[in-house]
Amino acid sequence: MEQMVERGEDFIKKVKENNNKLNSRQKKIIKFILENYTEVGFMSASKIAQKVDTSQSTILRLASALGYDGFGGMQSDIQAMIRRKITSATFVDEMETSYVDSNIKNINQYESLYSRVIQIDLENIKNIKRNIDVTSLVNVVDNILRAKNIYILGLRSSASLASFFGFSLNLILNNNVKILDNKICNLVDQTLSISKKDILISFCFARYTKETVKMMEFAKKKGAKTIVFADDILTPFSEICDLLIPVNVNSAGYVGSYVGPLSLVNFLLALTAFKMGKNAITRLKEVEKYFKEYDVFYSE
Q1: Cis bond upstream, residue 207 (ω within 30)
Q2: Secondary structure letter of residue 209 according to DSSP
Q3: What are phi and psi of 185, to 5 degrees?
Q4: Phi-psi bin for 223: left (phi > 0), alpha (psi -120 to 50), beta?
Q5: pLDDT at position 72, please?
Q6: Residue 72 Cα distances to 87, 249, 291, angstroms
Q7: Is residue 160 a part of any domain in this protein?
Q8: In this structure, what DSSP letter does residue 130 have?
Q9: Residue 76, domain CATH
Q10: Residue 268 pLDDT > 70
Q11: Mind listing the pLDDT tens digit for each residue in 74-126?
Q12: How many distinct helices (H) and strands (E) make up the chain?
């Protein structure tokens, strides 16, 4: 984690060291990056150029002017800034700076934090619409519908996403959805039969759990399709997954905000049902019948 902080600070350090050498256009780009780094971290050089009304070559020259070997190096440091932003330690630092007088019950302070939390969540969702191509999400659903078994993994705080996604998919996919849980038994034990006919969908955000990385590697070796939802295109999963969906979990709190990933999950569920058509309707009617038969829900 210390390395992540250093990399995140490297970009700021390079800007300060080279500031006098930068021209007005380059300084304008730097200003845009610093004001929008959570979004810029997932943009291509051409996309950044479009946002600041300049050429892609200008963005590449900026990276060189800051001392990077290429755009990729600069983007890596920007992404490290994002990872640093959502660590627990950073939140504590910000709290100590912003709320030193915690004994003063200032309603304006609370309202400011309230607005900040909501605004960051809104930005996370806006970034999804801007930066994630719907075709990649259609690809996820197509793989789900082709798979014999769908394994879904999310550990620690990501378990909430995996549980909701798996539970909801199971309502229409006839029980071939398996939510992996390391509290029951070893994850490998639960996936011994995984094969090239199956798919593993993982949710994992900084700080990345070793078990998730190992599980992805295991599934890949067994020939299964691997898809991961993560907050960084340079995660440990980037080399071992077939498809990576980058999604921001920026937060004003001490844990990441899963509003963005949950919004994607909602879309994937809706699209799955849409593509299944009458089969989804038939399945849901059957499920509803069992709910009534076994008196699942409370009624007056």
Answers
A1: yes
A2: P
A3: -165, 180
A4: left
A5: 85
A6: 23, 22, 53
A7: yes
A8: H
A9: 1.10.10.10
A10: yes
A11: 888 887 777 665 454 555 555 555 544 444 456 666 777 788 888 888 888 98
A12: 14, 5
Axis-axis angle for helices 2-18, 71-85 (nearest 10): 120
Stretch 236-250: mean pLDDT:
82
Residues 78 and 141 in one domain: no
Q: What is the mean pLDDT of residues 46-58?
A: 92
Which of these three, 85, 102, 118, is where a domain ends? 85
Domains of the chain: total: 2
**Statement to judge: residues 150 and 280 lie in one domain:** yes
Do 72 and 210 have their domain in common?
no
Query: In CATH, what number is assigned to the domain containing residue 159?
Result: 3.40.50.10490
140 with 237, same domain?
yes
Exposure letters 163-188 (e unless 16+ CB within 10 A, then b): ebbbebbbbbbeeebbbbbbeeeebe
The predicted pLDDT at position 189 comes to: 76
Residues 238, 251: Cα–Cα separation, whole Å: 23
Q: What's the whole-number average pLDDT of the chain?
A: 82
Asked if residue 47 belongs to a domain, the reply is: yes
Q: pLDDT per residue over 179-192, tens digit each?
A: 888 777 788 777 78
User: Does the pLDDT of residue 21 top 80, yes or no?
Assistant: yes
**Quick check: is 286 in a domain?**
yes
In the block, tokens 């006839």 appear at: 174
Q: Specify the amino acid at residue 89.
A: A
Residue 168, domain extent: 134-293
In a domain, 228, yes or no: yes
pTM for the whole thing? 0.67
pLDDT (0 to 100) of residue 85: 58
Nearest one of 264, 248, 218, 265 to 78, comparing CA atoms? 248
